[in-house]
Amino acid sequence: MHNLGQTRSACRASHYLFTPDTFVRAPLPGMTAATAIVHVSPAAGAAFTQYTVEFEAGGALGPSRGQRFLYVTGGELSAGGRVLAAGHYAFFPEGCDAKVSARGTASAAVIEKQYRALEGTNAPAMLFGDESAIAAAPLNGDAGIALRCLLPDQPAFDFAVNTMTYEPGAALSQVEIHVMEHGLAMLQGGGIYRLDDAWYPVSAGDFIWMAPYCPQWFGALGKTPAKYLIYKDWNRHPLP
Fold this sequence. Notes:
- This protein is mainly β and 240 residues long.
- It contains no helices and 20 strands.
- The protein has strands spanning 10-11, 15-18, 32-40, 49-60, 67-74, 77-79, 82-84, 88-92, 100-102, 106-113, 127-130, 137-139, 142-149, 159-166, 182-188, 190-195, 198-203, 207-210, 216-221, 226-233.
- Strands 1-2-18-15-20-14-13-12 form an eight-stranded antiparallel beta sheet, with no helix packed on it. The chain has a six-stranded antiparallel beta sheet with strand order 3-4-10-5-8-11, with no helix packed on it. A three-stranded antiparallel beta sheet has the order 7-6-9, with no helix packed on it.
- It is globular, with a radius of gyration of 17 Å.
């Protein structure tokens, strides 16, 4: 049935909510047997790019123009000589030419960003990880919200990527307003997100971009946990 122009998606100066009914797919240069859904990029005012890749068997990514973080959401990928299943992830520093290809149909969240060097530190090296192997920490002491930091909290890294899992009914303890921007991919469950002065129902498959200083708050609803993958710029002075 035609949706008659209705959607949960919203585009505001301080934030975007993109829902699967509005996704547009197109390959990026160098991709083979794969397609991308670009959720946010510098064209929207963001300082990073985030997209979902849907691979056919044998599909591959093209080269990155910056750092690349990859989180597998379905199937299996070969990357940098490793086999990555769902929940596995990889970080590739700027200039790394590691090939990323699919063993069968697969999907992944990809974040790319130009590197901001920090005097006195070396650029980070290639890294691989498994989310399930990372111990969860309660967010601000709340056992209902499990935080897993996928990248090391080291000055060499100029961004962070975390997963956050909320038990049904769990919610952030405050409305947050801060200098970092976010890219957020809902992985499972759902709830209510406050962005600026608007309130949105969100569910698995949605993507949210939050500009610096956008008021933000989330509470989980339903009978199953809500989980998202979230990016933020980190470890750098606000002055460029």
